[in-house]
């Protein structure tokens, strides 16, 4: 599918979708919870669908009622009839559900599709055998074969590549029976995502470890958990909302509702950058207003460290393009293994529209303030690249055609519709050519 975005203004009120980070964690916690979980405001992205499929395969009963989903479970993942679990393209699903699936007594295989097949998983081959789980990979990549049950024990892991592995281990340790265990972590990145995991575990009454400065997670002995009903409401997604906030900042005035300003989500830090850039912004508990009714002026250049919130790079590049002077984002090394190599993808695709993006060690330097030209760009099978290009296109000098526009489905299937509803000139045509 192609999206053609012509220069246009946006205005109105909108509510971003449910957070896939919260929804996928809720699915995992529901599988590990003895009893029933009612998930309100469930996410509907492709990654969310993958998580729901996985918990179904691991023995939970999933009943979908539209605005809420019921998940009933014994609290123990079961050996599936078909022992091949497909995690779609979701990095979080494969990395969170592998240790959880390893709680099962028996052999299992997990795999994925598309870009996930190129993302490194070597961590598991190094760590799971230390927990009693023989593990094989395909040269460090998927599929992964494991043979549980995982037995929690004291362990030290590398947290520098992704926090998602730790999220999976925390969930598995939090559900398994043991007499106490400590996960030591070197150089943890994306820390707020671990806070989100711990908050979910707390909500579901799991065995929650003591967090010693993100360097050690100390579990006490597990206690038996009684059957109960847990209700969980999935919060709105700051990562998806970041695109709407940037659209309002550069091309109109938007009111974004439903976001929790006290959320654990890493990407709420977009607000700090909007403030630095001098964008008109009003933050209330019930909503955020961004941009101005008069034709928005340019913001000013800014500097921001996105090491712990790497998903902000794409919307921040769109913002930086419209800020005078130089903007600098630190944390480039975090981008190599996402749905695409996002530093290069951003440099190349925004480069086609005339934006200069330089990469210097861990820094991305964006020379903004000159109008972008129209042209043809590719989403490169990466939802956040598609959305960043679309938002930037609102202020380009001519129409921007984005090929592979269906990529948004991974996190934000309603993205194009939302943009149209807010007044953006977007037409959608044809099949994927990205
Ligand atoms: O736990 C999560 O929900 C996520 C963690 C982050 O990954 P890393 O920990 O690999 O940075 C983020 O980029 C990803 O989109 C979602
Ligand atoms: C990198 C992302 O997700 P995941 O790692 O879960 O595939 C993302 O949503 O930008």
From TrEMBL:
Domain of life where this protein originates: Bacteria
Where, subcellularly, is it found? Cytoplasm
Positions that bind 3-phosphoshikimate: 20-21, 25, 162-164, 190, 311, 338
The answer to whether keyword Cytoplasm applies is yes
Any one GO MF annotation of this record: 3-phosphoshikimate 1-carboxyvinyltransferase activity
Domain Enolpyruvate transferase intervals: 7-419
Q: Name one GO cellular component term.
A: cytoplasm
What does the entry give for GO biological process?
A: amino acid biosynthetic process; aromatic amino acid family biosynthetic process; chorismate biosynthetic process
Q: Where does phosphoenolpyruvate bind?
A: 20, 91, 119, 164, 342, 384, 410
Q: In which pathway does it act?
A: Metabolic intermediate biosynthesis; chorismate biosynthesis; chorismate from D-erythrose 4-phosphate and phosphoenolpyruvate: step 6/7
- HAMAP family recorded for this chain? EPSP_synth (MF_00210)
Identify this protein by name.
Answer: 3-phosphoshikimate 1-carboxyvinyltransferase
Q: What is the lineage of its organism?
A: Bacteria, Pseudomonadati, Bacteroidota, Chitinophagia, Chitinophagales
Q: Which gene encodes it?
A: aroA
């Amino acid at each position: 599918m192609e999206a053609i975005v012509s220069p246009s203004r946006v205005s109105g009120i909108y509510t971003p979708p449910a957070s896939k980070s919260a929804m996928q964690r809720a699915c995992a916690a529901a599988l590990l919870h003895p009893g029933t979980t009612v998930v309100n405001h469930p996410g509907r992205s492709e990654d969310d669908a993958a998580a729901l499929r996985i918990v179904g395969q691991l023995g939970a009963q999933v009943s979908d009622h539209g605005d809420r989903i019921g998940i009933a479970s014994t609290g123990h993942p079961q050996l599936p009839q078909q022992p091949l679990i497909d995690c779609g393209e979701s990095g979080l699903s494969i990395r969170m559900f592998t240790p959880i699936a390893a709680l099962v007594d028996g052999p299992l295989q997990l795999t994925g599709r598309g870009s996930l097949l190129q993302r490194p998983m070597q961590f598991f081959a190094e760590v799971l055998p230390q927990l009693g789980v023989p593990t094989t990979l395909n040269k460090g990549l998927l599929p992964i074969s494991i043979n549980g049950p995982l037995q929690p024990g004291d362990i030290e892991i590398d947290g520098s590549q992704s926090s998602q592995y730790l999220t999976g281990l925390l969930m598995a340790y939090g559900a398994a029976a043991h007499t106490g265990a400590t996960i030591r972590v070197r150089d943890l990145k994306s820390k707020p995502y671990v806070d989100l995991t711990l908050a979910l575990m707390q909500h579901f009454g799991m065995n929650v470890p003591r967090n010693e400065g993100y360097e050690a997670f100390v579990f006490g002995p597990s206690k038996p958990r009684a059957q109960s009903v847990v209700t969980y409401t999935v919060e709105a997604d700051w990562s998806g909302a970041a695109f709407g906030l940037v659209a309002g900042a550069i091309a109109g005035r938007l009111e974004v509702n439903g976001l929790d300003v006290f959320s654990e989500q890493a990407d709420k830090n977009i607000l700090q950058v909007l403030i630095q850039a001098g964008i008109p912004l009003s933050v209330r508990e019930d909503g955020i207003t961004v941009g101005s009714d008069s034709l928005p002026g340019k913001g000013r250049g800014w500097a921001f460290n996105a090491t712990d919130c790497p998903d902000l790079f794409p919307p921040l590049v769109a913002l930086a393009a419209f800020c005078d002077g130089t903007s600098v984002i630190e944390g480039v090394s975090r981008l190599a293994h996402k749905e695409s190599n996002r530093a290069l993808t951003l440099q190349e695709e925004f480069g086609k529209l005339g934006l200069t993006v330089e990469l210097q060690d861990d820094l991305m330097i964006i020379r903004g303030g000159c109008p972008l030209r129209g042209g043809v760009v590719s989403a490169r099978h990466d939802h956040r690249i598609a959305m960043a290009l679309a938002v930037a296109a609102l202020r380009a000098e001519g129409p921007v055609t984005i090929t592979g526009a269906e990529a948004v489905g991974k996190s934000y299937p309603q993205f194009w519709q939302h943009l149209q509803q807010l007044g953006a000139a977007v037409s959608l045509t044809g099949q994927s050519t990205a």
